[in-house]
Amino acid sequence: MATDITLLWASGSHACWRVMIALEEKNLQGYNQKQLYFEKGEHKSKEVLEINPRGQLPAFKCGDLPLNESCAACFHLECKYKSQGTKLIPDCEDEKALILQRVFEVNALTEKSSIVLYYNWIVPEGERHDSAVKRNKEALTAELKLWEGYLQKASSGFIVGKNFSLADVIVYPAVAYLFQNGLSEQRYPKLAEYYKGLMNRPSIKASWPPTWKNAPKQETLKDI
Amino acid sequence: MATDITLLWASGSHACWRVMIALEEKNLQGYNQKQLYFEKGEHKSKEVLEINPRGQLPAFKCGDLPLNESCAACFHLECKYKSQGTKLIPDCEEGRALILQRVFEVNALAEKSSSVLYYNWRVPEGERHDSAVKRNKEALTAELKLWEGYLQASSGFIVGKNFSLADVIVYPAVAYLFQNGLSEQRYPKLAEYYKGLMNRPSIKASWPPTWKNAPKQETLKDI
Question: What residue stretches are annotated with the GST C-terminal domain (chain B) (predicted)?
Answer without folding.
Answer: 92-219
